[in-house]
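Query structure, 442 tokens:
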């Protein structure tokens, strides 16, 4: 079976016609080590090339008051789990270092590649330093998490970044921050790096950073799949763009392959009717086998996706995604009570808390400031008292230093945002359907 990663690079050129399949376990393992191993075996038996898990440290991912997303509540309707906070849910599904290490070793034994998504900096360091991960996935919700992206870039490992609820500009800034991590051994970027990536930065990422088109809904509707955004992102960044498929179908992804996607990701479950936020948008064993069968068919033999799945190619948050945007995304929050006159200091681990100076954290959900604002905020002092777990107010950044990118947008699929991102596509010339994407790494 071909390997997606070889010599710390994506191995597309050696397998020009092969489509790699990622079986996303995510939280369908119910936080259980034994079930994780069983689902890994199932993924291998179905013919998947990689199996993906999640790593998160709950207090570094959300606040105690963060609510579950609408689809999470719907998929657990009437159950006790639907009454939990997002933090409660995370504790149920949290995987230990030991469990993830066992899974990674099991993947090696049965010859399937291990992939994991870190949702916070402590989990990223754990995956790299203690679990031995050789490939990382950046979740859609973390595309604006500037400190996490910088640290991911610093690892030097191959990265796959998903793009649900994101627009083309946000994806570009994320790539700039990953490139910053590749070239800077410490520290965070300043406001000069709140921008689209340069050609030199994209060249730096060409061999081992890839993107995925994604719609953040479980399940995602056909109408909001927007497959043509794959071509837009390929044209914009010259990187390989795969498809993270939340539709629960076996034909829509065939359109992604026809557009040049070389890797697909879809959820796998032991029971579509099991309790949990993602089971209903997943494939059971029979469904996953059928999914892979369709993906392996030669061109011209694969089923055609519904016409509505192609979309318009504008990479912007879709209307139904907007309902989960504010919960799925990160904001800037108080790590502890902050007194007037205190310098803002970012905390990213329990050790930072023990040292005492850290007073700001990046967690879900969206508030007044985006993580990009750290490029200026960390040079400021608090002008007022801010209580623990409260949002850092936007007026803590002087007006003359404020940028549009620092302000949280609570209408990410609205007319104003769509017009601005459409104009960006046109300036970059990425909507030309006659333009064949030129990928930097094949």
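Result returned for the query:
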């Amino acid at each position: 079976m071909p390997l997606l990663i070889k010599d710390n690079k994506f191995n597309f050129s050696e397998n020009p016609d092969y489509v790699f399949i990622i079986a996303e376990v995510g939280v369908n393992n119910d936080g259980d080590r034994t079930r994780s191993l069983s689902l890994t075996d199932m993924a291998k038996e179905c013919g998947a090339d990689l199996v993906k898990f999640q790593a998160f440290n709950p207090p570094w991912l959300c606040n105690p008051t963060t609510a579950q997303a609408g689809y999470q509540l719907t998929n657990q309707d009437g159950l006790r789990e639907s009454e939990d906070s997002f933090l409660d849910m995370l504790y149920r599904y949290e995987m230990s270092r030991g469990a993830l290490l066992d899974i990674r070793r099991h993947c090696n034994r049965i010859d399937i590649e291990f992939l994991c998504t870190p949702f916070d900096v402590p989990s990223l360091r754990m995956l790299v330093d203690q679990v031995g991960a050789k490939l990382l996935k950046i979740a859609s919700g973390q595309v604006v998490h500037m400190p996490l992206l910088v640290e991911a870039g610093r690892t030097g490992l191959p990265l796959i970044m998903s793009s649900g609820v994101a627009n083309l500009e946000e994806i570009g800034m994320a790539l700039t921050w990953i490139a910053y991590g590749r070239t800077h051994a410490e520290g965070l970027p300043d406001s000069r790096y709140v921008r689209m990536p340069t050609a030199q930065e994209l060249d730096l990422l060409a061999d081992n950073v890839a993107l995925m088109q994604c719609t953040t809904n479980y399940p995602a509707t056909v109408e909001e799949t927007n497959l043509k955004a794959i071509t837009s992102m390929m044209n914009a960044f010259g990187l390989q763009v795969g498809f993270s498929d939340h539709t629960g179908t076996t034909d829509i992804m065939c359109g992604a392959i026809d557009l040049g996607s070389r890797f697909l990701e879809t959820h796998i479950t032991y029971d579509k009717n099991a309790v949990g936020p993602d089971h209903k948008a997943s494939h059971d064993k029979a469904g996953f086998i059928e999914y892979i069968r369709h993906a392996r068919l030669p061109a011209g033999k694969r089923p055609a996706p519904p016409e509505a799945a192609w979309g318009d190619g504008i990479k912007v948050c879709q209307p139904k995604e907007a309902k989960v945007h504010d919960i799925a995304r990160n904001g800037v929050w108080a790590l502890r009570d902050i007194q007037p006159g205190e310098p803002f200091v970012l905390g990213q681990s329990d050790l930072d808390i023990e040292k005492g100076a850290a007073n700001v954290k990046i967690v879900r959900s969206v508030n007044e400031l985006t993580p990009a604002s750290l490029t200026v905020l960390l040079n400021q002092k608090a002008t007022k008292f801010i209580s623990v777990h409260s949002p850092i107010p936007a007026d803590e950044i002087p007006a003359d230093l404020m940028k549009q990118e620092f302000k949280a947008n609570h209408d990410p699929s609205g007319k104003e945002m769509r017009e601005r991102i459409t104009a960006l596509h046109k300036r970059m010339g990425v909507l030309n359907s006659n333009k064949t994407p030129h990928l930097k790494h094949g």
